[in-house]
Amino acid sequence: MHLGSQQASGRTPDSEPVFAFHDPVDLDDGQQLHPETLEKRILTVAPQIRDCLVASARLRGRVQTDVLLVLQPGVDPDDDHESAIGPAFTATELATIRRILVLGADRDLPPERLADDRVRTWQHQILEMAGARLPGLGADPDPVPRPDERVPVEFAGDTAGVAALTWGQHEIWQSMTRQGNWLPLGGWRPLEAGTTVEAVADELAYLHTRFPSMRTFLRFDAQGNPHQELLSSGTTHLEIYDAPPGAQAADDLAAAISDHYQYTPYDLRTEWPVRMAVVRQDGEATRMAVAMHHLALDGGGAEVMFRDVAVRASTPPSGLQQLEQTSWQTSPAGLRHSDRTLRHFTDILRVMPTPTFPPSDDPRRPRYWSAEYHSPALRPALAALGQRTGADQTRVIFAVYAIALAHVTGVHPVLFRPVIGNRFRHQLADVTCHAAQAGLVLLDVADSTVEDVIDRAGSAAMNALKHSYFDPKRLNELIEEIGQERGAELDIASFFNDRRATTMTSPSPADAEAPTGSATPQPTEPATAEEYAKARAAGRFEWVQRRNDPVERLFLHVDEGPDALSLIVEADTRGMSPAQIEQLVREIEQVAVEAALQPNLSTGISKS
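Above: the chain's sequence. Below: its structure in C-alpha cell form.
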C-alpha cells in the first residue's frame, strides 16, 4: 500500500476494526437507522442518483450520518440534490445528517467505482467519521508520483505514553472532523547545492527524535473518542524521486509530490505525522517536499521547529510537552483555569444575537465557497487609523472587521472567534505542538463612531487573549446547554485569523490593553482620497474554490503580502451568499479607507 506517507512498522489500518458494514444504528427515539434500507429509499425517491452510500455511527454521544451521492451521467452536481433526497428520511434520521457529499459521475468519480468497491469506500468513510482517516483537499486527477526508493529512517526519543488529547489538539481535531480535512501544513522548496540524501534523512530523524508530536498516533475508544499515543522510537521512510536534468523538471516533480502528499488520505492511527521526500538529480538532492497534519503542530509550533532544525538544537526542549500538558490540564489548577475561561464564554453565549447568520437568499451547490481579495489600500488605511487613535493593529482590525460584518449580515453586536496562538503562555512558548485555540468576541458597533469601536476593541482583544486556553469539549456542552435554555441555536462558527506576524501575539506589560508585537505601524502611501481611490482600483478579487466538503460557517484569514494585504474568506453559502462573501472583503477595505480619511466617522449602524 502506497499512501505517500510513513506507516508505522507492524501496524495496519485494519488492526483495529471500528464498525461493521451496514450494521443498523440505534437512534435516540428507540428506532434503528438501517443504512442499506435508507440507500434503497434514496434511489427510489431521486432517480437522478445513480448510486449512494450511507455511513452512520454513534460518535461523541450522538448518531452522525454521512451520505455520498453518485449522480447519473449528465446530471448537474450543482443542483440541490439534498432537498431531492429529503423524503427518503424520517425526521429522526434526518436529524442525524452531518453532511451530504455529491459526486458527479462525469466529473468526480467513474460511475462504476462505488458499485465495484462499496465495502472499501464505506469503510473509508466510516473511519473518517471516527477520525481515523481524513480526506485531503479533493480528488487528485493527475498521475500519482511513485518513489524510486524508500530509505528507512530510524529514530528514538526519550518519552512515551498514552493520554487524552490536549486542549489545543482537541480544538484542531474538532475542526478536522467538521471539515473532513486533515488540514495539511507544508510544501516544497529547493535545496542548497551539494545536499545529500543522507543529510535530508538525518533531518527527518532529528524531527522525530526531538519533537514528541512527530512520534504521536491517535487511538480511539469504542465510542470513537480520540486519545494520543506517544511512541519512544520507530522507523519512518524518506521517499526518493528521480528527476531528469533541469530545474523545471525538478520543480514540476516536487510540486506533484507536494500535491500528492496533501491530497492523499491520512490514517492518523498508523502513519507518522511527517511525510517527506526529496527529488534526486544525478545523485544529488535538489528539492524537498514535506507535509505534516495539523494535529502535530500549528504556526507557532512550526516556527519553533524551524528554529531548532536550523541549528540542530541539542538541549532538551523547554516548556510543557504534550503529555505534560494533558497532565496539567486535568489537574485542579488546569480545571480552574478552564472554568474561568468558560465563565467568560457563558456570559457571551447568554446574550449573543441569534441567528449569527440569517439564512442566505442565494444558497449554492456546491455549498462552500472561498475567495481571495488583494487590497493595496487596506494596509495604509489600517496604519493611518492606528496612528491617529494610538491603537495597535489588533484593535483596529477587530473594529473594522466587526463593522464590515455587521453591514453585511445586519446582525449586531458582532460575534467572531479570533484564533490565538497561545505562545505568550510561558510553558507553551517553545513547544512544537498544536496550542492555538479560538477565543470569543462580542463587539458592540451600533450608534458609535469607528473610533469608539476601536476603543472597545481593546478590551475585546485582551479578553480574547486571556480567555483562549480551555477545554473545547466543555465549550461544546455549554453551547448546547445555553442554547436549550434560550430556545435558540447558538452558532459561533465565525472565525477570524490574523496571520500577520505583528498581531495577536501576547499581552504587553507596557500597555495592559495592547498585545505586544501589534505596535502601530507608520502609514505608507496613499494618504489622500484620490490616492486611496487609485489603490482601491488596483484591488483584485477572485473566487478560489467551490466545494462540497464542509468549511466553517465563516472563516476570514488576513495575510501580509509584499504590496497588499490579502483577505482570504471561506463561507457557507447557506449563511452568506456569494454576493455577501464578496461584499464582506470589499466592505472591510471601504470601512478602513473611509475612517482613515474622515475622523469620527459613524459606523452607520443603529440599535433600533
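The first strand starts at residue 25 and ends at 26.
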